Amino acid sequence: MTEFIQLMAQYPLLFAAISFVFAAVIGSFLNVVIHRLPVMMKREWQEECNQYLDEYHKATVTEIKDKLAQPIDDFPEKYNLIVPGSSCPKCKTDIKPWHNLPVIGWLMLGGKCAHCKTSISVRYPIIEALTGFAVAYLAYHFGPTWQFVFATLLTFGLIALTGIDLDEMLLPDQITLPLLWLGLLINLNGTYVSITDAVIGASAGYMSLWSVFWGFKILTGKEGMGYGDFKLLAVFGAWFGWQLLPLIILLSSIVGALVGLLLIVNKKINSGNPIPFGPYIALAGWIAMIWGENIVNWYLSTL
């Protein structure tokens, strides 16, 4: 293992290429997570509703219970991140293993199901390629170090969160909370920042957006963002300390405002429609992970 690490350190482009292939394969799995995790969560919520009705309202809510007992989707009863295997959403034909190759499989099929010729969303190869390129850059930037390993895990989580938030306006605790605790654990020995900065960062990240949320709600009576956004910013505070939080908030706000304005101008959404903020926090946090200190130092040097 030591010899392999030394070899990868000696040939950073080779290490980046190997990392790209590995990450693209994981990107294929992230597509599964983005699609299936919300379905699994909805089923869990439905089951919790049924259990509540069974325990407390047996005599008075039979009709409601019957309605809740009905399937909320068209997927098989046993449905998780592993089972069933990948299949065409229309004809249900199983996807061959070679057609599941990241990016290449989609190109081989011409973006269509091999059986029924239904179009396959271009989002699948985009996520696979994005995951591959992001991790390849991390490999080149950090080299074969623990910082690279943990940054890669964070990147996988951010891509999954971004896809789910775009689809469902939801940042699942099943992803944000493990990332939050992992950030604190890896900084026990100062992987990115001191544990003191990490703890303060996690607290400040959560409380800063929490304060904005309640201030906006008190003034307007509306909720400007979700609790998942607080947790995601806390993740970056736990990983990279409180010092980078202002930069992350600034970058995410600027990008979010510009994208929202473009969508309104192009009439993709109305001005009152909500847009997910998680993807902008994720992108800003990833940028801060790589170039945050350089950006802050550049800004301070201009003052």
Termini separation comes to 47 Å
Which structural category do the helix and sheet elements fall into?
Answer: mainly alpha
Amount of beta strand? under 5%
Spans of at least 5 consecutive residues with low confidence: none
Could you give the topology of this structure?
Layout: H1 2-10, H2 12-56, H3 62-69, H4 104-109, H5 123-142, H6 146-168, H7 173-186, H8 195-220, H9 227-240, H10 245-265, H11 278-302
Helix pairs in contact: 2-5, 2-6, 5-6, 6-7, 6-11, 7-8, 7-9, 8-9, 9-11, 10-11
List keywords for this structure.
Prepilin leader peptidase/N-methyltransferase; globular; hydrolase; EC 3.4.23.43; Prepilin_IV_endopep_pep; 303 residues; single chain
Give a structural overview.
By secondary structure, the protein is an all-alpha fold. It folds into 2 domains: 8-109, no CATH class; 145-302, no CATH class. The chain has 11 helices and no strands. The chain has helices spanning 2-10, 12-56, 62-69, 104-109, 123-142, 146-168, 173-186, 195-220, 227-240, 245-265, 278-302. Helix 6 packs across helix 11 and helix 7 (173-186) runs parallel beside helix 9 (227-240). The termini are far apart. Its EC number is 2.1.1.-, 3.4.23.43.
Concise account of the structure shown:
This is Prepilin leader peptidase/N-methyltransferase. The protein is mainly alpha-helical and 303 residues long. It has helices at 2-10, 12-56, 62-69, 104-109, 123-142, 146-168, 173-186, 195-220, 227-240, 245-265, 278-302.
